[in-house]
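Incident review: delayed structure delivery

Summary: a single-chain prediction request sat in the queue longer than the usual turnaround. Root cause was a stuck worker, restarted by the on-call engineer. No data loss occurred. The affected request and its eventual output are reproduced below so the record is complete for anyone auditing the incident later.

Affected input:
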Amino acid sequence: MLFALLLPVAFAPSAYAAHAIAQYGEPKYPPGFSHFDYVNPDAPKGGTLVLANPDRLTSFDKFNPFTMRGNAAPGLGMLFESLTTGSLDEVASAYGLLADDIRVAPDGMSVTFHLNPRARFSNGDPVTADDVKFSLDTLKSPQAAPSMSAYFSDVARAVVVDPATVRFEFRNHNRELPFIAGGMPVFSHKWGLRADGTRIAFDQLAFEQPIGSGPYVIGQYSNGRTITYRKDPRYWGADLPVRVGTNNFERIMYKLYSDDVARLEAFKAGEYDVHVEYVARNWVRRVVGKKFDSGELIKREFPHHNGTGMQGFIMNLRKPVFQDVRVRQALGLALDFQWLNRQLFYSQYRRLDSFFANTDLQARGLPSPGELALLNPWRGQLDPAVFGPPPLQPDTDPPGSLRANLLKARALLAAAGWTYRDGALRNAQGEPFVFEVLDDTSAAAQWAPIMAQYLHALERLGIQANYRSVDFALYQKRLDAFDFDMTTIRFPDVQVPGAEQLDRFGSQAAGTPGSGNLVGLKSPAVDAVLKALVGAQTREQLLDATHALDRLLMHGYYVVPQWYSATHRIAFRNTLAWPAQLPRYYSANDWVISTWWFKPQH
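Output delivered after worker restart:
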Protein backbone atom coordinates (compact mmCIF):
# COMPACT_ATOMS: atom_id res chain seq x y z
CA MET A 1 0.00 0.00 0.00
CA LEU A 2 0.98 3.59 -0.50
CA PHE A 3 -0.30 4.62 2.87
CA ALA A 4 1.78 4.90 5.99
CA LEU A 5 1.14 2.42 8.77
CA LEU A 6 -2.56 2.79 9.61
CA LEU A 7 -3.21 1.81 13.19
CA PRO A 8 -5.63 2.66 16.01
CA VAL A 9 -4.85 5.42 18.46
CA ALA A 10 -5.72 5.77 22.13
CA PHE A 11 -7.25 9.08 23.09
CA ALA A 12 -6.33 11.09 26.13
CA PRO A 13 -9.19 12.49 28.22
CA SER A 14 -8.61 15.92 26.72
CA ALA A 15 -7.26 17.18 23.42
CA TYR A 16 -3.52 17.19 23.16
CA ALA A 17 -0.80 18.08 20.71
CA ALA A 18 2.03 15.66 20.04
CA HIS A 19 4.84 14.68 17.71
CA ALA A 20 3.38 11.16 17.60
CA ILE A 21 0.38 9.09 18.68
CA ALA A 22 0.24 5.51 19.92
CA GLN A 23 -2.43 2.92 20.49
CA TYR A 24 -1.61 2.33 24.15
CA GLY A 25 0.67 4.22 26.46
CA GLU A 26 3.34 6.37 24.88
CA PRO A 27 5.11 6.11 21.52
CA LYS A 28 8.46 4.38 21.75
CA TYR A 29 10.37 7.41 20.45
CA PRO A 30 10.08 10.60 22.53
CA PRO A 31 9.98 14.18 21.26
CA GLY A 32 13.34 15.17 19.83
CA PHE A 33 14.45 11.62 18.97
CA SER A 34 17.20 11.52 16.36
CA HIS A 35 16.27 8.47 14.26
CA PHE A 36 14.60 5.08 14.35
CA ASP A 37 16.67 2.30 15.90
CA TYR A 38 16.50 0.08 12.81
CA VAL A 39 18.30 2.51 10.46
CA ASN A 40 21.95 3.46 10.08
CA PRO A 41 22.05 7.25 10.47
CA ASP A 42 25.52 7.28 8.88
CA ALA A 43 24.60 5.14 5.87
CA PRO A 44 26.48 6.19 2.72
CA LYS A 45 24.37 7.81 0.03
CA GLY A 46 24.48 7.20 -3.71
CA GLY A 47 24.38 4.55 -6.39
CA THR A 48 21.62 3.07 -8.52
CA LEU A 49 19.61 0.22 -7.05
CA VAL A 50 18.12 -1.96 -9.80
CA LEU A 51 15.07 -4.05 -8.94
CA ALA A 52 12.66 -6.36 -10.76
CA ASN A 53 8.88 -6.71 -10.58
CA PRO A 54 7.94 -6.45 -6.89
CA ASP A 55 4.72 -8.37 -7.63
CA ARG A 56 2.96 -9.94 -10.61
CA LEU A 57 2.93 -6.72 -12.60
CA THR A 58 4.64 -7.21 -15.98
CA SER A 59 3.96 -3.79 -17.57
CA PHE A 60 2.51 -0.42 -16.65
CA ASP A 61 0.51 2.25 -18.44
CA LYS A 62 0.10 5.06 -15.91
CA PHE A 63 1.69 7.02 -13.07
CA ASN A 64 -1.53 7.40 -11.09
CA PRO A 65 -1.79 4.64 -8.47
CA PHE A 66 -5.12 5.87 -7.11
CA THR A 67 -7.42 5.07 -10.04
CA MET A 68 -8.93 1.80 -11.14
CA ARG A 69 -8.25 1.73 -14.85
CA GLY A 70 -4.85 0.48 -16.05
CA ASN A 71 -1.71 -0.68 -14.24
CA ALA A 72 0.38 1.76 -12.23
CA ALA A 73 4.16 1.67 -12.39
CA PRO A 74 5.92 0.03 -9.43
CA GLY A 75 7.54 2.28 -6.85
CA LEU A 76 5.17 5.24 -7.12
CA GLY A 77 4.75 5.30 -3.35
CA MET A 78 8.17 6.97 -3.16
CA LEU A 79 6.67 10.10 -4.73
CA PHE A 80 4.01 10.73 -2.10
CA GLU A 81 4.36 11.61 1.57
CA SER A 82 1.59 11.48 4.18
CA LEU A 83 0.93 13.56 7.26
CA THR A 84 2.25 10.78 9.50
CA THR A 85 4.34 7.65 9.12
CA GLY A 86 4.71 4.50 11.19
CA SER A 87 7.62 2.90 12.99
CA LEU A 88 8.63 -0.61 11.96
CA ASP A 89 9.44 -1.72 15.50
CA GLU A 90 6.05 -0.87 17.02
CA VAL A 91 2.68 -2.36 16.22
CA ALA A 92 0.73 0.84 16.78
CA SER A 93 2.38 4.20 16.36
CA ALA A 94 2.42 7.14 13.97
CA TYR A 95 4.95 9.97 13.89
CA GLY A 96 4.71 13.33 12.21
CA LEU A 97 5.99 13.55 8.63
CA LEU A 98 4.31 16.31 6.65
CA ALA A 99 2.74 17.27 9.96
CA ASP A 100 4.86 18.53 12.83
CA ASP A 101 2.01 18.49 15.34
CA ILE A 102 -1.00 16.20 15.87
CA ARG A 103 -4.02 17.12 17.98
CA VAL A 104 -6.79 14.60 18.66
CA ALA A 105 -10.10 16.05 19.85
CA PRO A 106 -11.32 15.07 23.34
CA ASP A 107 -14.31 13.20 21.90
CA GLY A 108 -12.22 11.45 19.24
CA MET A 109 -14.41 12.83 16.46
CA SER A 110 -11.68 14.84 14.74
CA VAL A 111 -7.93 15.20 14.44
CA THR A 112 -6.02 18.36 13.57
CA PHE A 113 -2.62 18.42 11.88
CA HIS A 114 -0.25 21.36 11.67
CA LEU A 115 1.97 21.21 8.59
CA ASN A 116 5.73 21.47 8.78
CA PRO A 117 6.52 24.89 7.27
CA ARG A 118 9.46 23.32 5.40
CA ALA A 119 7.31 20.76 3.57
CA ARG A 120 7.52 21.18 -0.20
CA PHE A 121 6.21 19.45 -3.30
CA SER A 122 8.56 18.35 -6.05
CA ASN A 123 7.71 21.51 -8.04
CA GLY A 124 8.93 23.68 -5.15
CA ASP A 125 5.48 24.75 -3.91
CA PRO A 126 4.79 24.58 -0.17
CA VAL A 127 2.44 21.84 1.01
CA THR A 128 -0.70 23.60 2.23
CA ALA A 129 -3.89 22.64 4.02
CA ASP A 130 -5.70 23.25 0.73
CA ASP A 131 -3.59 20.53 -0.90
CA VAL A 132 -4.42 18.12 1.92
CA LYS A 133 -8.13 18.81 1.52
CA PHE A 134 -7.84 18.50 -2.25
CA SER A 135 -6.19 15.08 -1.84
CA LEU A 136 -8.95 13.76 0.41
CA ASP A 137 -11.74 15.16 -1.75
CA THR A 138 -10.15 13.64 -4.86
CA LEU A 139 -9.57 10.22 -3.32
CA LYS A 140 -13.18 10.10 -2.12
CA SER A 141 -14.55 11.18 -5.51
CA PRO A 142 -15.89 8.85 -8.23
CA GLN A 143 -12.72 9.56 -10.23
CA ALA A 144 -10.60 7.55 -7.80
CA ALA A 145 -10.73 3.78 -7.42
CA PRO A 146 -13.81 2.70 -5.45
CA SER A 147 -11.58 1.18 -2.79
CA MET A 148 -10.25 4.66 -2.02
CA SER A 149 -13.71 6.03 -1.29
CA ALA A 150 -14.54 2.98 0.82
CA TYR A 151 -11.33 3.25 2.80
CA PHE A 152 -11.91 6.92 3.67
CA SER A 153 -15.69 6.63 4.00
CA ASP A 154 -15.73 7.43 7.73
CA VAL A 155 -13.63 10.56 7.21
CA ALA A 156 -16.48 13.01 6.66
CA ARG A 157 -14.44 15.98 5.49
CA ALA A 158 -11.20 17.91 5.71
CA VAL A 159 -11.54 21.47 6.96
CA VAL A 160 -8.92 24.10 6.20
CA VAL A 161 -8.36 25.93 9.50
CA ASP A 162 -5.60 28.11 8.10
CA PRO A 163 -2.97 27.65 5.35
CA ALA A 164 -0.86 25.42 7.61
CA THR A 165 -3.58 23.65 9.61
CA VAL A 166 -6.14 21.09 8.54
CA ARG A 167 -8.79 19.29 10.57
CA PHE A 168 -10.27 15.92 9.63
CA GLU A 169 -13.79 15.34 10.94
CA PHE A 170 -15.18 11.84 11.33
CA ARG A 171 -18.60 10.30 10.90
CA ASN A 172 -18.14 7.79 13.71
CA HIS A 173 -16.15 7.34 16.88
CA ASN A 174 -13.48 5.02 15.51
CA ARG A 175 -10.09 4.94 17.19
CA GLU A 176 -8.37 4.15 13.90
CA LEU A 177 -9.58 7.22 12.03
CA PRO A 178 -6.79 9.62 13.11
CA PHE A 179 -4.36 7.09 11.64
CA ILE A 180 -6.34 6.71 8.45
CA ALA A 181 -6.35 10.48 8.05
CA GLY A 182 -2.66 10.76 8.89
CA GLY A 183 -1.70 8.00 6.47
CA MET A 184 -3.49 9.52 3.48
CA PRO A 185 -1.11 10.24 0.57
CA VAL A 186 -0.96 13.96 -0.17
CA PHE A 187 -0.48 15.42 -3.65
CA SER A 188 -0.57 18.90 -5.14
CA HIS A 189 -3.76 20.40 -6.56
CA LYS A 190 -1.63 21.30 -9.60
CA TRP A 191 -1.26 17.64 -10.63
CA GLY A 192 -3.15 17.44 -13.92
CA LEU A 193 -3.49 21.21 -14.29
CA ARG A 194 -2.76 22.38 -17.84
CA ALA A 195 -0.93 25.60 -18.70
CA ASP A 196 -4.20 27.21 -19.79
CA GLY A 197 -5.78 26.55 -16.40
CA THR A 198 -7.97 23.64 -17.50
CA ARG A 199 -7.64 20.34 -15.67
CA ILE A 200 -7.20 16.76 -16.84
CA ALA A 201 -9.75 14.60 -15.06
CA PHE A 202 -8.13 12.63 -12.26
CA ASP A 203 -9.16 9.30 -13.70
CA GLN A 204 -7.66 10.32 -17.06
CA LEU A 205 -4.18 11.02 -15.67
CA ALA A 206 -1.76 8.60 -17.29
CA PHE A 207 1.88 9.65 -17.79
CA GLU A 208 1.46 13.17 -16.39
CA GLN A 209 4.17 13.57 -13.76
CA PRO A 210 2.72 13.29 -10.25
CA ILE A 211 3.42 16.23 -7.97
CA GLY A 212 4.11 14.78 -4.55
CA SER A 213 6.42 15.65 -1.68
CA GLY A 214 8.37 12.39 -1.46
CA PRO A 215 12.13 11.83 -1.66
CA TYR A 216 12.10 10.68 -5.30
CA VAL A 217 10.78 11.90 -8.64
CA ILE A 218 10.40 10.04 -11.92
CA GLY A 219 13.50 10.20 -14.08
CA GLN A 220 13.22 8.00 -17.15
CA TYR A 221 10.81 5.31 -18.29
CA SER A 222 10.42 3.19 -21.40
CA ASN A 223 7.73 1.07 -23.05
CA GLY A 224 5.89 0.39 -19.84
CA ARG A 225 8.65 -2.05 -18.83
CA THR A 226 11.33 0.06 -17.15
CA ILE A 227 11.21 3.11 -14.91
CA THR A 228 13.90 4.99 -12.99
CA TYR A 229 13.32 7.21 -9.97
CA ARG A 230 15.96 9.74 -9.00
CA LYS A 231 16.49 11.45 -5.68
CA ASP A 232 14.82 14.85 -5.62
CA PRO A 233 17.69 17.31 -4.97
CA ARG A 234 15.14 19.64 -3.37
CA TYR A 235 13.66 17.02 -1.07
CA TRP A 236 12.71 18.86 2.08
CA GLY A 237 12.57 16.09 4.70
CA ALA A 238 15.94 14.32 4.61
CA ASP A 239 16.92 15.42 8.13
CA LEU A 240 13.58 14.65 9.79
CA PRO A 241 13.99 12.01 12.54
CA VAL A 242 11.63 9.69 10.64
CA ARG A 243 13.75 10.01 7.50
CA VAL A 244 17.33 10.00 8.84
CA GLY A 245 19.16 6.90 7.58
CA THR A 246 16.56 6.16 4.89
CA ASN A 247 16.35 6.69 1.11
CA ASN A 248 20.06 6.07 0.67
CA PHE A 249 20.09 5.33 -3.07
CA GLU A 250 20.54 8.11 -5.60
CA ARG A 251 18.43 6.24 -8.15
CA ILE A 252 16.06 3.29 -8.04
CA MET A 253 15.29 1.50 -11.27
CA TYR A 254 12.64 -1.17 -11.93
CA LYS A 255 12.88 -3.67 -14.78
CA LEU A 256 9.73 -5.69 -15.39
CA TYR A 257 10.08 -9.26 -16.60
CA SER A 258 7.43 -11.37 -18.29
CA ASP A 259 7.47 -14.25 -15.81
CA ASP A 260 9.17 -15.57 -12.67
CA VAL A 261 11.60 -17.80 -14.58
CA ALA A 262 12.91 -14.95 -16.72
CA ARG A 263 13.14 -12.71 -13.67
CA LEU A 264 15.26 -15.11 -11.62
CA GLU A 265 17.58 -15.90 -14.54
CA ALA A 266 18.03 -12.17 -15.10
CA PHE A 267 19.08 -11.74 -11.47
CA LYS A 268 21.69 -14.49 -11.72
CA ALA A 269 22.94 -12.85 -14.92
CA GLY A 270 23.52 -9.60 -13.03
CA GLU A 271 20.66 -7.54 -14.49
CA TYR A 272 19.36 -6.37 -11.11
CA ASP A 273 20.61 -6.17 -7.52
CA VAL A 274 18.10 -7.69 -5.10
CA HIS A 275 15.82 -10.68 -5.50
CA VAL A 276 13.12 -11.52 -2.95
CA GLU A 277 12.15 -15.17 -3.36
CA TYR A 278 8.70 -16.41 -2.36
CA VAL A 279 8.98 -19.95 -3.75
CA ALA A 280 10.73 -22.48 -1.50
CA ARG A 281 11.74 -24.74 -4.37
CA ASN A 282 13.39 -21.86 -6.19
CA TRP A 283 15.21 -20.80 -3.02
CA VAL A 284 16.71 -24.25 -2.53
CA ARG A 285 17.24 -25.39 -6.12
CA ARG A 286 17.48 -22.31 -8.36
CA VAL A 287 18.86 -19.46 -6.27
CA VAL A 288 22.29 -21.04 -6.66
CA GLY A 289 25.21 -20.91 -9.10
CA LYS A 290 28.74 -19.77 -9.67
CA LYS A 291 28.14 -16.20 -8.50
CA PHE A 292 26.78 -17.51 -5.22
CA ASP A 293 29.75 -19.86 -4.89
CA SER A 294 32.17 -16.97 -5.49
CA GLY A 295 30.40 -14.68 -3.04
CA GLU A 296 29.40 -12.11 -5.66
CA LEU A 297 25.79 -12.95 -4.84
CA ILE A 298 24.55 -13.72 -1.33
CA LYS A 299 21.36 -15.42 -0.15
CA ARG A 300 20.08 -14.95 3.37
CA GLU A 301 16.91 -15.43 5.39
CA PHE A 302 15.87 -12.49 7.58
CA PRO A 303 13.41 -13.20 10.42
CA HIS A 304 10.37 -11.03 10.98
CA HIS A 305 7.46 -10.81 13.40
CA ASN A 306 4.79 -9.96 10.85
CA GLY A 307 1.40 -11.50 11.01
CA THR A 308 1.01 -13.91 8.13
CA GLY A 309 -2.13 -12.58 6.53
CA MET A 310 -4.07 -15.19 4.60
CA GLN A 311 -2.93 -16.77 1.35
CA GLY A 312 -5.08 -19.34 -0.32
CA PHE A 313 -7.39 -20.44 -3.09
CA ILE A 314 -10.32 -18.09 -2.67
CA MET A 315 -13.78 -18.90 -3.94
CA ASN A 316 -16.10 -16.32 -5.46
CA LEU A 317 -19.43 -16.68 -3.67
CA ARG A 318 -21.10 -14.80 -6.50
CA LYS A 319 -20.86 -18.10 -8.40
CA PRO A 320 -23.68 -20.53 -7.50
CA VAL A 321 -21.35 -23.53 -7.37
CA PHE A 322 -19.58 -22.16 -4.24
CA GLN A 323 -22.56 -20.97 -2.21
CA ASP A 324 -22.94 -24.11 -0.07
CA VAL A 325 -20.48 -24.20 2.83
CA ARG A 326 -20.25 -27.99 2.56
CA VAL A 327 -18.97 -27.65 -1.00
CA ARG A 328 -16.34 -25.14 0.10
CA GLN A 329 -15.23 -27.39 2.95
CA ALA A 330 -14.96 -30.33 0.55
CA LEU A 331 -12.71 -28.36 -1.79
CA GLY A 332 -10.37 -27.70 1.14
CA LEU A 333 -10.11 -31.41 1.90
CA ALA A 334 -8.64 -32.03 -1.56
CA LEU A 335 -5.46 -30.02 -0.95
CA ASP A 336 -2.62 -32.25 0.31
CA PHE A 337 -0.39 -29.71 2.07
CA GLN A 338 1.84 -32.30 3.75
CA TRP A 339 2.74 -33.88 0.40
CA LEU A 340 3.37 -30.48 -1.17
CA ASN A 341 5.56 -29.41 1.74
CA ARG A 342 7.67 -32.57 1.51
CA GLN A 343 7.92 -32.89 -2.24
CA LEU A 344 7.90 -29.28 -3.47
CA PHE A 345 8.62 -26.94 -0.56
CA TYR A 346 11.52 -28.74 1.15
CA SER A 347 9.56 -28.61 4.42
CA GLN A 348 10.06 -24.86 4.64
CA TYR A 349 6.43 -23.90 5.21
CA ARG A 350 3.79 -24.08 7.89
CA ARG A 351 0.10 -24.53 7.15
CA LEU A 352 -2.09 -21.47 7.58
CA ASP A 353 -4.94 -22.06 10.02
CA SER A 354 -6.08 -18.47 10.58
CA PHE A 355 -6.50 -15.13 8.85
CA PHE A 356 -4.23 -13.75 11.61
CA ALA A 357 -1.74 -16.58 12.13
CA ASN A 358 1.52 -15.99 13.99
CA THR A 359 -0.09 -13.28 16.19
CA ASP A 360 -2.28 -12.99 19.28
CA LEU A 361 -5.07 -11.93 16.92
CA GLN A 362 -5.64 -15.58 15.95
CA ALA A 363 -8.70 -17.28 17.44
CA ARG A 364 -7.83 -20.26 19.65
CA GLY A 365 -9.81 -22.65 21.77
CA LEU A 366 -13.37 -21.81 22.78
CA PRO A 367 -14.76 -18.28 22.38
CA SER A 368 -14.13 -15.91 25.28
CA PRO A 369 -17.02 -14.10 27.00
CA GLY A 370 -16.19 -11.03 24.91
CA GLU A 371 -16.35 -13.04 21.68
CA LEU A 372 -19.62 -14.65 22.73
CA ALA A 373 -21.12 -11.22 23.35
CA LEU A 374 -20.48 -10.46 19.67
CA LEU A 375 -21.51 -13.86 18.30
CA ASN A 376 -24.54 -14.73 20.45
CA PRO A 377 -26.94 -12.26 18.77
CA TRP A 378 -26.41 -14.22 15.55
CA ARG A 379 -26.50 -17.71 17.03
CA GLY A 380 -29.66 -18.64 15.16
CA GLN A 381 -28.01 -17.79 11.81
CA LEU A 382 -24.62 -19.36 12.46
CA ASP A 383 -23.30 -22.89 12.26
CA PRO A 384 -23.09 -24.19 15.87
CA ALA A 385 -19.46 -25.10 15.11
CA VAL A 386 -18.60 -21.38 15.25
CA PHE A 387 -19.11 -21.57 19.00
CA GLY A 388 -16.56 -24.34 19.33
CA PRO A 389 -12.82 -24.43 18.56
CA PRO A 390 -11.56 -23.13 15.19
CA PRO A 391 -11.54 -25.84 12.50
CA LEU A 392 -8.42 -27.94 12.10
CA GLN A 393 -6.85 -28.02 8.66
CA PRO A 394 -6.90 -31.36 6.81
CA ASP A 395 -3.85 -33.53 7.51
CA THR A 396 -2.45 -36.36 5.42
CA ASP A 397 0.39 -37.44 7.70
CA PRO A 398 -0.23 -40.97 9.09
CA PRO A 399 -2.69 -42.04 10.35
CA GLY A 400 -4.34 -39.47 8.07
CA SER A 401 -4.32 -39.75 4.28
CA LEU A 402 -5.55 -37.92 1.21
CA ARG A 403 -7.86 -40.86 0.48
CA ALA A 404 -9.55 -40.46 3.85
CA ASN A 405 -9.94 -36.72 3.28
CA LEU A 406 -11.46 -37.30 -0.17
CA LEU A 407 -13.98 -39.71 1.34
CA LYS A 408 -15.02 -36.98 3.78
CA ALA A 409 -15.22 -34.53 0.89
CA ARG A 410 -17.40 -36.93 -1.13
CA ALA A 411 -19.82 -37.21 1.80
CA LEU A 412 -20.02 -33.44 2.18
CA LEU A 413 -20.64 -33.01 -1.55
CA ALA A 414 -23.37 -35.65 -1.50
CA ALA A 415 -25.06 -33.88 1.43
CA ALA A 416 -24.97 -30.69 -0.66
CA GLY A 417 -26.68 -32.45 -3.57
CA TRP A 418 -23.65 -33.36 -5.70
CA THR A 419 -23.33 -37.03 -6.69
CA TYR A 420 -21.19 -38.89 -9.20
CA ARG A 421 -22.99 -40.14 -12.29
CA ASP A 422 -22.43 -40.26 -16.04
CA GLY A 423 -18.71 -39.65 -15.64
CA ALA A 424 -18.88 -36.48 -13.55
CA LEU A 425 -20.01 -35.00 -10.26
CA ARG A 426 -23.47 -33.56 -10.93
CA ASN A 427 -26.16 -31.64 -9.08
CA ALA A 428 -29.87 -32.48 -9.03
CA GLN A 429 -30.34 -30.74 -12.39
CA GLY A 430 -27.63 -32.92 -13.94
CA GLU A 431 -25.17 -30.06 -14.33
CA PRO A 432 -21.51 -31.09 -13.94
CA PHE A 433 -19.31 -29.52 -11.27
CA VAL A 434 -16.98 -27.38 -13.40
CA PHE A 435 -15.07 -24.23 -12.49
CA GLU A 436 -12.00 -22.24 -13.54
CA VAL A 437 -8.93 -21.46 -11.46
CA LEU A 438 -7.65 -18.11 -12.74
CA ASP A 439 -4.04 -16.99 -12.48
CA ASP A 440 -1.69 -14.65 -14.31
CA THR A 441 0.97 -15.91 -16.66
CA SER A 442 3.90 -14.60 -14.61
CA ALA A 443 3.07 -17.04 -11.81
CA ALA A 444 1.92 -19.99 -13.91
CA ALA A 445 5.27 -21.80 -14.00
CA GLN A 446 5.75 -21.88 -10.23
CA TRP A 447 2.14 -22.90 -9.60
CA ALA A 448 2.02 -25.66 -12.23
CA PRO A 449 3.19 -28.54 -9.96
CA ILE A 450 0.97 -27.33 -7.09
CA MET A 451 -2.05 -27.09 -9.35
CA ALA A 452 -1.31 -30.54 -10.79
CA GLN A 453 -1.71 -32.12 -7.33
CA TYR A 454 -4.79 -30.13 -6.42
CA LEU A 455 -6.59 -30.56 -9.74
CA HIS A 456 -5.86 -34.29 -9.77
CA ALA A 457 -7.42 -34.66 -6.32
CA LEU A 458 -10.48 -32.70 -7.45
CA GLU A 459 -10.71 -34.92 -10.52
CA ARG A 460 -10.88 -37.96 -8.23
CA LEU A 461 -14.00 -36.37 -6.74
CA GLY A 462 -15.49 -35.95 -10.22
CA ILE A 463 -14.86 -32.20 -10.28
CA GLN A 464 -13.46 -30.60 -13.43
CA ALA A 465 -11.28 -27.63 -12.45
CA ASN A 466 -9.64 -25.85 -15.38
CA TYR A 467 -6.44 -23.93 -14.66
CA ARG A 468 -6.16 -20.81 -16.82
CA SER A 469 -3.42 -18.18 -16.83
CA VAL A 470 -3.81 -14.78 -18.49
CA ASP A 471 -1.76 -11.62 -18.83
CA PHE A 472 -1.58 -9.67 -15.57
CA ALA A 473 -3.49 -6.69 -16.97
CA LEU A 474 -6.42 -8.92 -17.93
CA TYR A 475 -6.10 -10.84 -14.68
CA GLN A 476 -6.39 -7.65 -12.64
CA LYS A 477 -9.27 -6.42 -14.77
CA ARG A 478 -11.16 -9.63 -14.17
CA LEU A 479 -10.54 -9.48 -10.42
CA ASP A 480 -11.74 -5.88 -10.30
CA ALA A 481 -14.93 -6.94 -12.07
CA PHE A 482 -15.27 -10.09 -9.88
CA ASP A 483 -15.16 -12.11 -13.11
CA PHE A 484 -13.54 -15.30 -11.80
CA ASP A 485 -14.43 -18.56 -10.06
CA MET A 486 -11.35 -19.33 -7.97
CA THR A 487 -7.93 -17.70 -7.77
CA THR A 488 -4.93 -17.47 -5.46
CA ILE A 489 -4.80 -14.30 -3.37
CA ARG A 490 -2.82 -13.18 -0.36
CA PHE A 491 -4.62 -10.85 2.03
CA PRO A 492 -1.71 -8.77 3.41
CA ASP A 493 -0.88 -9.00 7.09
CA VAL A 494 -1.79 -6.28 9.54
CA GLN A 495 -0.53 -5.85 13.08
CA VAL A 496 -3.66 -4.02 14.20
CA PRO A 497 -6.78 -4.81 12.12
CA GLY A 498 -9.00 -1.92 11.14
CA ALA A 499 -10.78 -0.37 8.18
CA GLU A 500 -9.00 -2.61 5.65
CA GLN A 501 -11.11 -5.49 6.99
CA LEU A 502 -14.27 -3.67 5.90
CA ASP A 503 -12.92 -3.56 2.36
CA ARG A 504 -12.02 -7.26 2.44
CA PHE A 505 -15.10 -8.72 4.11
CA GLY A 506 -17.81 -6.06 4.49
CA SER A 507 -21.12 -6.48 2.66
CA GLN A 508 -20.96 -3.02 1.13
CA ALA A 509 -17.58 -3.75 -0.46
CA ALA A 510 -18.92 -6.97 -1.97
CA GLY A 511 -20.92 -4.91 -4.46
CA THR A 512 -18.17 -2.40 -5.19
CA PRO A 513 -16.07 -3.25 -8.28
CA GLY A 514 -12.37 -3.03 -7.51
CA SER A 515 -12.85 -3.62 -3.79
CA GLY A 516 -10.90 -6.13 -1.74
CA ASN A 517 -13.97 -8.27 -1.07
CA LEU A 518 -13.15 -10.72 -3.83
CA VAL A 519 -14.90 -13.50 -1.93
CA GLY A 520 -18.22 -11.67 -2.33
CA LEU A 521 -18.99 -12.14 1.37
CA LYS A 522 -22.27 -10.64 2.56
CA SER A 523 -22.90 -11.63 6.15
CA PRO A 524 -24.81 -9.60 8.77
CA ALA A 525 -22.86 -11.39 11.50
CA VAL A 526 -19.53 -10.49 9.89
CA ASP A 527 -20.70 -6.90 9.37
CA ALA A 528 -21.62 -6.61 13.06
CA VAL A 529 -18.26 -7.97 14.17
CA LEU A 530 -16.46 -5.64 11.75
CA LYS A 531 -18.34 -2.70 13.25
CA ALA A 532 -17.18 -3.76 16.71
CA LEU A 533 -13.63 -4.22 15.42
CA VAL A 534 -13.24 -0.75 13.94
CA GLY A 535 -14.97 0.78 16.96
CA ALA A 536 -12.94 -1.08 19.59
CA GLN A 537 -11.97 1.20 22.48
CA THR A 538 -9.49 -1.12 24.23
CA ARG A 539 -6.98 -3.74 23.23
CA GLU A 540 -9.22 -6.39 24.80
CA GLN A 541 -12.19 -5.29 22.68
CA LEU A 542 -10.02 -5.35 19.56
CA LEU A 543 -8.83 -8.89 20.34
CA ASP A 544 -12.36 -10.13 21.01
CA ALA A 545 -13.63 -8.68 17.74
CA THR A 546 -10.68 -10.00 15.71
CA HIS A 547 -10.97 -13.45 17.26
CA ALA A 548 -14.69 -13.48 16.48
CA LEU A 549 -14.01 -12.40 12.90
CA ASP A 550 -11.38 -15.13 12.52
CA ARG A 551 -13.85 -17.77 13.74
CA LEU A 552 -16.54 -16.62 11.30
CA LEU A 553 -14.14 -16.57 8.35
CA MET A 554 -12.50 -19.91 9.10
CA HIS A 555 -15.83 -21.68 9.71
CA GLY A 556 -17.15 -20.16 6.49
CA TYR A 557 -14.49 -22.01 4.45
CA TYR A 558 -14.28 -19.15 1.96
CA VAL A 559 -10.59 -19.86 1.34
CA VAL A 560 -8.56 -23.05 0.99
CA PRO A 561 -5.64 -21.93 3.19
CA GLN A 562 -2.15 -22.40 1.86
CA TRP A 563 1.12 -21.82 3.75
CA TYR A 564 3.48 -19.26 5.22
CA SER A 565 7.08 -18.63 6.24
CA ALA A 566 8.36 -16.60 9.20
CA THR A 567 11.39 -15.31 7.29
CA HIS A 568 12.08 -13.10 4.28
CA ARG A 569 14.27 -14.87 1.69
CA ILE A 570 16.49 -12.26 0.06
CA ALA A 571 19.32 -12.72 -2.44
CA PHE A 572 21.50 -9.71 -3.23
CA ARG A 573 24.81 -8.40 -4.53
CA ASN A 574 27.70 -8.37 -2.07
CA THR A 575 28.06 -4.63 -2.66
CA LEU A 576 24.93 -3.98 -0.57
CA ALA A 577 24.66 -3.54 3.20
CA TRP A 578 21.87 -3.14 5.74
CA PRO A 579 21.49 -1.83 9.32
CA ALA A 580 22.69 -3.97 12.22
CA GLN A 581 19.29 -3.96 13.92
CA LEU A 582 16.40 -5.49 12.00
CA PRO A 583 12.92 -4.02 12.25
CA ARG A 584 10.21 -6.23 13.70
CA TYR A 585 7.36 -5.67 11.25
CA TYR A 586 8.39 -5.12 7.65
CA SER A 587 8.07 -6.16 4.03
CA ALA A 588 11.26 -7.23 2.32
CA ASN A 589 11.15 -4.96 -0.74
CA ASP A 590 10.23 -1.82 1.19
CA TRP A 591 12.89 -2.50 3.81
CA VAL A 592 15.61 -2.83 1.18
CA ILE A 593 14.54 0.32 -0.66
CA SER A 594 14.21 2.45 2.44
CA THR A 595 17.16 1.43 4.64
CA TRP A 596 19.86 -0.47 2.69
CA TRP A 597 22.84 1.15 0.97
CA PHE A 598 25.82 0.43 -1.26
CA LYS A 599 29.14 -0.20 0.46
CA PRO A 600 31.74 2.47 -0.32
CA GLN A 601 34.14 1.43 -3.07
CA HIS A 602 37.80 1.73 -2.14
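Verification: The chain has a mean pLDDT of 93.
Action items: add queue-age alerting; document worker restart procedure.
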